[in-house]
Design brief:
Layout lengths: L1 E6 L3 H14 L4 E6 L2 H10 L4 E5 L7 H11 L4 E6 L4 H9 L4 E4 L4 H19 L4 H26 L8 H6 L7 E7 L8 H15 L3 E2 L6 E7 L7 H18 L5 E4 L9 H12 L7 E4 L4 E2 L8 H4 L2 H15 L3 H17 L4 H22 L6 H4 L1 H7 L3 H26 L2 H12 L7 H8 L3 H12 L3 H19 L4 H7 L5 H12 L3 H7 L1
Length: 525
Amino acid sequence: MFNILVTDDEQIVIDSLSFIISKNFPDEAKVFTALSGTESLEIVMKENIDIMFTDINMPGLNGLETVSVITKLKPNIVFVILSAFDRFQYAQEAINLGAYKYITKPVNRNVVIETIRGAMQLIQEKQGKLSADRELHKKLDMVSPMIENDFIYACIYNNDKSVDLSSYLDYFNLSDNPWVFCCFEFPNINSENQYSTYLKIHELLNTEHRCLVSSFMMNRIVVFFPIFSANPDYSEVQEQIKKFYTTLSYNISTGIRAGVSTIFSDKTKLQASYSEALSALNKTKADGGLIFSDGSAFTDASANTGNELSKKSGKIEFKNQIISKLTSGDTNGVKSFLELFASELISLDLPADKIKNSFFELIVTANNSTRELNKNFTSDTFDNAFATLSSENDIKLIKEFTQKFLMECTHAVASVKKAEENPIIKKVCAYVEEKLAEDISLETAADFAGVSSFYLSKLFKEEKGETFINYISDKRLEKSRQLLESTELSIKEITAEVGYNDQNYFSRIFKNKYGLSPKEYRKVK
């Protein structure tokens, strides 16, 4: 447990830093706070402080003076200097005093987290707490995937038989196991997402079954799948591989192509078994599927969304809006755009299986988006989605099932966002909701929150990923959309209700946002 002292004469800064620390280091850090350099000295003398954040400009004993005094008393404390000014002389003096980092306000959450982790690491190194066992474990975690990759490459390219492949299997304690090889080809893989996708695939597959997984070769990976049963049955292996395929389709991408070899046990046939898997892969359709070397095939519903629908820009736009609303925790927005999504599908007059596949693709995308934001998200509804959609032909019931799952996703995202939101931003967002029909400026919101407009502008951009003005505009348009759905107010009345004076301007930006004018949107709804 690390003791962290936050010193600043602004309570809002103390609250923000305390929130970030408590949220991201709940079991690793205890937070102490002080409103002045003098108060921080008293705490340092009483508590065993490890890391100290301190502002430079404070009444009485300023930050640099405080650091100078405390360093003489407690030389092992790691100091992080805070300042609203990015001035070289301050930073230079702080570094000369032995400060670890110099951070400008408003504090960036990611910078704070990275700084604390670095400070903790520095303290551990000073105290010699990094054990040899831990270091060895970290090295093995890095080395084993490299050896897996070397083994599979040797299986593919060992034409002269110069490499003893059995030594690799001895290393992984798989010498006595029969196996199959699997080749997977993933769409939309590029240099930017290859490594992160490989790590995710490696984790997913090894959660279910011990496998050796290669790195990406272009857009393909190769998996050595050992069989642990005494009397291996190919049909059982096929069922396991189908689960693999479905897992990857759910969590990585739709449209995966895959081929699987027959069962081998002769180590001299490793290259031949890989060739079988590659041959099976080459027989799969371009839009995805899984083929085994005995000719049997398996196609997950998520791989067959159909080229016809992918060309329908309206459907794609509504789907994108659903995911956008979901990832912002907006339940009403999700419901509204799901209605438009369903209406668009029905209007295309497609076969029932194509419509069901589109709903399933939406469900898979929503699940993946939710898990990116909430790592602990699980859903029985999602686990049963494929079976439910396969057996149900009533589009209305399919839409209701999809909405149920989307609500689970939206609530899971909203819970995370609520827990992570900075208290200043939370306060300002509540203010915006209350004053939406009024003339809201950055200055009035900053006065309400008790911070400078510069501080709020920078903090808002960091926390929300958009400017304060754009946030207000999005909120006003979202409220107008809800009013169009749920009230009989005229367009003119709605324009005033959401804080706009010009109806033509409002109609224009509404159409830019949603692709329909307010009148058109109300007719669809």
